[in-house]
Amino acid sequence: MDFLEEIIFGSKKMPAIIVIGDGRFSALKIMEKIMPGSNVKIFEQDSAGKDKLWENLPQKSFIIFNYDDESEKELKNKIFGNILPSNVLSFGFGEGADFRVSDINVDEKGTNFKIINEGKTIPFWIDGLFGREQIYGALAAVCAGKIIGKNLVEISQSLKSG
After folding, report:
1. What is the rounded distance in angstroms from the CA atom of residue 30 to the CA atom of residue 134?
2. Minimal CB count within 10 Å: which of 19, 29, 108, 129?
3. 88, 91, 130 from 73: Cα distances, Å
4. Is the dihedral of CA 81, 82, 84, 90 positive or negative?
5. Residue 58 near residue 16 (C-beta atoms within 8 A)
6. Which H or E element spans position 92?
7. Whole-number Å distance between alpha carbons of 13 and 8
8. pLDDT by residue (tens digit) across 73-83?
9. How many Cα atoms are found within 13 Å in the side-chain-facing hemisphere of 28?
């Protein structure tokens, strides 16, 4: 079964979340801390071949993308076939991302930072997290957590205790 067939088949039973851009690989591992035992199917996808993907996704699917990736910035304004605009979320370091990171501090124990979303700023602490790729992963995981109905404080606590 190819990637597209797997998404279409899986999303008939449960919501599908597709993560695109830098951070997508580390996001899957971090999402397990936020959504243990969740029935949401999460896929990671690079930019290649995504146009065909958009046309065939079921409406209850979600797209999470890295807003800092210049090739992905236009995603928020594109039409994705059946995907609702509210089901497209962005993350990144720059202004304009739905979930934006700020105030990054790294020490020998881990990394702490703040995530800004809808005017709210919540502190996050993750043990052993040191690189930009992992911070992108954490941001993508936070987007997925919001999709399944968790608030930022719950997500922050699950990452700190995980």
Report:
1. 9
2. 108
3. 12, 10, 25
4. negative
5. yes
6. strand 88-92
7. 9
8. 666 666 555 56
9. 13
125 neighbors 112 (Cβ within 8 angstroms): yes
**C-alpha span between 91 and 83 (Å, rounded):** 18
The DSSP 8-state label assigned to residue 74 in this structure reads: G
Half-sphere exposure of 9 (CA within 13 A, CB side): 6
User: Is CATH 3.40.1190.10 the right assignment for the domain spanning 3-161?
Assistant: yes
What would the pLDDT profile of 95-146 be if each residue is shown by its tens digit? 889 999 999 998 888 888 999 999 999 999 888 767 777 888 889 889 988 8
Specify the pLDDT at position 123: 94
Q: Please, which residues have CB within 8 angstroms of residue 28's CB and are 6 or more apart in sequence?
A: 19, 42, 44, 137
